[in-house]
């Protein structure tokens, strides 16, 4: 089984971290390849960054389709371009927010999410609501650090994550916490050990869902909304290969 994990931003060190987290949880025999496009924002922190990252991400999926990739993981918690990616892929495409929500609502009745910047809070709230879990999400909390600070200031980031996870438990009444950024994936076990709260990382959740779907023989439906895009010309726009 071949799973292509795509970090839509262009920061290679974050891609390497995400790839290592994915490999640590994958079954023996699952081949994990972690990639990122070039020319996209260094981090994705808002709707504009999302939009700028999607075309290059879709090109990586198109190439993956010619290489026999079985499933794709979009390793950004905003799940940018998820529906578009499902249109061009035959196999499953898993967004890490969607995966984390599916996992946490299976193991807990109430949960909170801890993300990076305050500006991401309403984006994630809307995304969780679109996945049907808005009533079960007690809060989306922010550590008030940019994405790249997770790598630049790891001690500060971890301390703030612990603080917010404990607040989610004690104030929100959350029974589990979801990490709201792919760049947090290497902290999952330490945070759970320090707080005693079940902590879900979307990268790992997505890998396990992808393995299960491919192993079960499930593919993306091509009836209706996720059908392949219709071939058509463009007017004054470059057309991706």
From TrEMBL:
Residue ranges the record marks as coiled coil: none
- The record's EC number reads 5.1.99.5
Pfam families found in the cross-reference section: Asp_Glu_race
Report the top EC class in one word: isomerase
**One example GO MF annotation:** hydantoin racemase activity
Q: Which InterPro entries match?
A: Asp/Glu/hydantoin_racemase (IPR015942), Hydantoin_racemase-like (IPR052186), Iso_Racemase_Enz_sf (IPR053714)
Q: Which reaction does it catalyse?
A: D-5-benzylhydantoin = L-5-benzylhydantoin; a D-5-monosubstituted hydantoin = a L-5-monosubstituted hydantoin; D-5-isobutylhydantoin = L-5-isobutylhydantoin
Please state which protein family the record places this protein in: Belongs to the HyuE racemase family.
Return the protein name: Hydantoin racemase
Name of encoding gene:
hyuE
